[in-house]
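Open question from group meeting: does this chain pack into something compact, or does most of it stay loose? Before anyone orders reagents, we agreed to write out a predicted structure and look at it together. Recording both the input and the output here so the notebook holds the full record.
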Amino acid sequence: MRRITRIATVGVASAALALSATACSGKTSSDAGSDSDKKAAIAYDIGGRGDQSFNDAAYAGLSKANKDLGVSGTEAEPSDGEGDADKVQRLTELARSGNNPVIGVGFAYAPAIKKVAPKFPKTTFGIIDDASVTAKNIANIVFNEEQGSYLAGVAAAKVTKTKTVGFIGGVETPLIKKFEAGYVQGVKDTDPSVTVLPQYLTQPPNFEGFSKPDLGKAAAQGQLDKKADVIYSAAGLAGSGAIEAASKAGKWNIGVDSDQYNQAGLANYKESILTSVTKDVEDSVFNLIKSVQDGKPESGEIRYGLDKDGVGLSLSNPAFTKMKDVIAAVDKAKQEIIDGKITVKSAP
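Structure tokens returned:
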């Protein structure tokens, strides 16, 4: 198993954002040269930083806190095939190093945070995409992914020419099933004649479906062979493989979590990314860090939905914004969800 090391600096005069290294043991190291007592840390989900999606959105929030608040940030990468014990060790070291808050990026950190948080009652622990583990010093950052996915379904149903669209989920978990449920409902409510092809790359406890681009590429190719001309991938780093395949076939992609049209690592395929279902992970991470710095740390469930622009569709691709009828349909659906006229399912 190889060691993953990334060291870089996001420069501002007041503080340096130290990027830590995580070995297979789960150990992390932060910037030994920083004397700031304003420190925060994020521990990445499968795929790590550079996934052009979920983890990168969390990094953007930490980077923003560095720039706007002068907070020294530490990142901790996951290791291949790690278990809960590795995550416990990682979070423990981050807390012992004086980071506050310590944020686990992804529901996989729930068991570890449950064990570590009671040992550091003065430290706020954030967990993204999980509300099952609760305590006074735990902030549960969750999103209505099904709502944003519904809008993606509306867009897909409006632009498809083959009446066949695809959905690729990284790992078949309840969280990713929310993406599928909203997408399928949005498609069917818009045009019942459109066929949706759902596919998952792996099943728990195998989480490679979030980290292996080749798996996403193969799945997308299979859906393209079945005439899908719009593919929505909720698969982390594996989704980049799906985006590549659909792009090379001249078909539409719908990205996830980050605005993938603007991700540098996907620049070669950006014209194929019609839109992305965004989750405001960036601001959720920044807001939690700021709350701690303000002395009023967030706690309990913090939910982001369409009503707070916590989820939505990106408008970066000019080709998408020119589709006035599609945009109108999306805007109508968004308002009806906010008004309670449409209830989006959270399971297929």
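Observations to bring back to the group:
Residues 174-190 form the longest helix (17 residues).
The longest strand covers residues 164-171.
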